Structures are given as C-alpha cells and as structure tokens.
Amino acid sequence: MKEKKIKSEKLLRLEKAIRYLLGKGIIEKDKDILKKTDYSKSTLSNMLNGTKNVSTNFINTFCDAFTDINKDWLLTGKDDMLFENIKQEQAKSDTVQLELSFSRIADSNATLADTNAKLSKQIIKLSNEILNFKKVYLAAEQDPVVDRTVAANQ
Q1: Cβ count within 10 A of residue 10
Q2: How far apart are the C-alpha atoms of 75 and 15, rounded to whole Å?
Q3: Euclidean distance between CA atoms 49 and 5, whole angstroms
Q4: d(Cα 72, Cα 42) in Å, to the nearest integer?
C-alpha cells in the first residue's frame, strides 16, 4: 500500500504561488518555472510531490524569477503572498497616518487661531489701557493739583 505524503506548509504555499502564476497567465505550465529557475524537471517534480523538501535555495531562485511573490511569505507564511498586497496595505496605512496628521494639524491650527484672536483682543485692551493711562498722566502733568496715584488707578 502506498504511503500518503503529508505536505509541508512551505510546499502548500509554493503550490498556491504556482496556482496564482498560472491563473494570472504569468506561467502556462510547470515547464515555465523550470525555464525561469534553471532547476531540473525531476527536482521540481520531487519538491511538488513532497518526496523532496522545498529548499530555501529554490525559494530564493523562484522569487528572483517571479518578483510578485513575497519570499518571506513563501518561507515563513508571514505577510501576504504578493508584494502588491503588502504595498497596498502600506499605502492604506500611510494614507491613514497622513489623514490623522492632517487632522491634528487642522486642530492645532484652529486652536492657534482661537488663541491668536484672544491675544489680539487682549493686546487691543492693553493698548487702550496704556492710551488712557497716558492721557491721565499727561493731564496730571499739566495740572499739578491732580494726584498721580489716583489718576493712574482710573
């Protein structure tokens, strides 16, 4: 009785990558993988049927030949199979970060505008108080009877 081979996770990911390449028309047959990787038919066949482990060297060569495929995904299962998906996710993340930054800047700008308006009012108020003080002081200088401390408090 023939023993059934248990496929490794790495082999399952390689098969998925090959199905993707076939589905996209990047390759038409396994022969196209052989041409691009310079591996023999028997080596590839042994890896795909599970009699030989999928080597790291093969994964490196495969990913050099098919640059859409993420080598880290093939080796470890981490991230996405396609670099395009990773780039899209990164672009989405960057967009969200930019939107958050823009929102923070807009909030800061509104706060600064409010503070600026309050300070402008305070400056006008203080300028008016200085003008009033000058008027009272000048009036007191011209009339020596006027008590300067009383005039300053008006």
Answers
A1: 19
A2: 13
A3: 8
A4: 25
- HEC sequence for the chain: CCCCCCCCHHHHHHHHHHHHHHHCCCCCCHHHHHHHHCCCHHHHHHHHCCCCCCCHHHHHHHHHHCCCECHHHHHHCCCCCEHHHHHHHHHHHHHHHHHHHHHHHHHHHHHHHHHHHHHHHHHHHHHHHHHHHHHHHHHHHHCCCCCHHHHHCC
The answer to whether the pTM exceeds 0.70 is no
pLDDT of residue 98: 73
Task: Decide if pLDDT at 148 tops 70.
Answer: no
**Residue 66 near residue 26, CB atoms below 8 Å:** yes
Both tokens of residue 118? 């309050």
The total of other beta-carbon atoms located within 10 Å of residue 74's CB is: 22
Using only C-alpha atoms, what is the Rg of the chain? 39
Q: Which stretch of 12-21, 56-65, 98-107, 127-136 has the lowest confidence by average pLDDT?
A: 98-107
What's the CA gap between 145 and 149, in Å, rounded?
Answer: 12
